[in-house]
Amino acid sequence: MNDQHQDERARIRQAMDRLLAGEATASNGSLTVVALAAEAGVHRMALLRRHTDLKNEFYERVRAETRQVPEHERRLRETVTRLKETVARQKAEIEELRQLVARLTLASAVLLQNDEQALDPPAADNVVPLRRPPS
């Protein structure tokens, strides 16, 4: 590793210590990668691509030292909860629609059967001849 890379890593570690101590100087002090990058004076993508180990170490330290769930993880958990609720509602709606389709199919079959019976000519033993009225 070159000196610039080592210097960047050292600044990130120092920024971690400041953020976890609540002594932020160059960021808003939140325990996020964005704040860590701002505090260290490096681009956020440097943390996400070149220094993923430091990013993971930061989140592990946040979890261990502050007993907090990192902000990104909390948002993801909320999203997962909302999505699970949405899936449960959709499954219930799909089941309700399946039952409706079954009932409508049955009703349609009954109506078609009644129509076919109505169109059949009456049996000969049911025919009563009409008589002319007496004159």
UniProtKB/TrEMBL annotation:
Coiled-coil blocks: 73-107
Entry keyword set: Coiled coil
Entry protein name: Uncharacterized protein
Organism: Streptomyces luteolifulvus
Origin organism lineage: Bacteria, Bacillati, Actinomycetota, Actinomycetes, Kitasatosporales
